[in-house]
Specification:
There is one protein chain. This protein has helices at about 15-30, 35-45. α1 (about 15-30) packs across α2 (about 35-45). The chain has two helices and no strands. The chain has about 55 residues and is an all-alpha fold. The longest helix has 16 residues, at about 15-30.
Amino acid sequence: MRRAAHELIGHPDDVNYASAALVSTDFLKAYVLGDRQALAKLNTGKDAKGAVWLKR
C-alpha cells in the first residue's frame, strides 16, 4: 500500500484524489460548520481501495 498525504494536492489524476477530497470536505463541514451529517459520514466511512484514512 502506498502512503499519501498532502502530495495528493494538485494531482487530480491520482486514483485516491477524489476520496481524499471528499474526506477533507466532510472533515471541514463537520468540525468547522458543525454539520452532523458530515460527522456521521466521517465516523462510519470506509477506507478507499488502496488508501486508509486515519481517524484520530
